[in-house]
Amino acid sequence: MGKSTFSVNLAWAALAQLFEFQGRPGRVGLMDCDIYGPSVPLMMGLGGSRPEVQGEGTDAMLVPIERHGVKVMSMGFLVDDNTPVVWRGPMIMKTIQQFVQNVRWGELDVLLVDLPPGTGDAQLSLVQTLPLDGAGDCDDAAARCDERRAQGRLDVSKVNVPLIGVAENMSFFIDPAGNKHALFGSGGGVLTAEKLGTTCSARCR
Ligand SMILES: Nc1ncnc2c1ncn2[C@@H]1O[C@H](COP(=O)(O)OP(=O)(O)O)[C@@H](O)[C@H]1O
Ligand SMILES: [Mg+2]
């Protein structure tokens, strides 16, 4: 748990601010490929936003919505909150292709992609559409002993993408006096990373 939260914070709090600081604003993109449950719009404060469409027919391009220096595209911008998306694999594939080809991303330094859990239609469509530099996994400390969670993980061997690292979410809590507590114990991220043959690159509160 925490993939979307981590993606949003990485895009906004880490990367966009870093590029802004370097005098290169607007170079971070966040593509929300969780077609059934897009949570990025809400987390970026963009609930209810609709992207501008430029051009017509097959040439139509969607303009990503920019917030906090991050260019965002999400299925959540295109469907009504109360209408569940009930699509099969080919529709997911088509949407992901459109998010890559028919969105005016401009020149980016980094494009982050937020995915649903597991290795399903979205993951497979994505790797067939875009060459990826790497994948990250987000393990929350509360669930780290639960082997069933492994089923929700991205199987990088199936998608042939290098695993960059593991982020341990909900790693600690800081109380009002400033003391740090590892509510769910510690070391879970490292354990997961070892199992996956990578490193635990981040611990988030
Ligand atoms: N470190 C955290 N501290 C507090 N709440 C969190 C944290 N990480 C995730 N959450 C909350 O848990 C819920 C699920 O997180 P989310 O990022 O949507 O998970 P995922 O994308 O992996 O399904 C959200 O309501 C989110 O706000
Ligand atoms: Mg999510």
Nutshell version of this structure?
This protein is α/β, with parallel strands linked by helices. It is built from six helices and eleven strands.
How are the elements arranged and paired?
Blueprint: H1 3-21, E1 28-32, H2 40-43, E2 53-54, E3 61-62, E4 65-67, E5 70-74, H3 89-101, E6 110-114, H4 121-129, E7 135-140, H5 156-159, E8 163-169, E9 173-174, E10 180-181, H6 188-196, E11 200-203
Parallel strand pairs: 1-5, 1-6, 7-8, 8-11
Antiparallel strand pairs: 2-3, 4-5, 9-10
Helix pairs in contact: 3-4
Can you tag this structure with a few keywords?
Rossmann fold, alpha/beta, binds adenosine-5'-diphosphate, 6 helices, 4-stranded mixed β-sheet, binds magnesium ion, 21% strand, 11 strands, 2 domains, 205 residues, globular, 3-stranded parallel β-sheet
Can you tell me about this structure?
- By secondary structure, the protein is α/β, with parallel strands linked by helices.
- The protein folds into two domains: 1-130, P-loop containing nucleotide triphosphate hydrolases (Rossmann fold, 3-Layer(aba) Sandwich); 134-205, no CATH class.
- It has helices spanning 3-21, 40-43, 89-101, 121-129, 156-159, 188-196, and strands at residues 28-32, 53-54, 61-62, 65-67, 70-74, 110-114, 135-140, 163-169, 173-174, 180-181, 200-203.
- The strands form four sheets. Strands 4-5-1-6 form a four-stranded mixed β-sheet, with helices on one face.
- Helix 3 (89-101) packs parallel to helix 4 (121-129).
- The radius of gyration is 18 Å and the shape is globular.
- It binds adenosine-5'-diphosphate and magnesium ion.
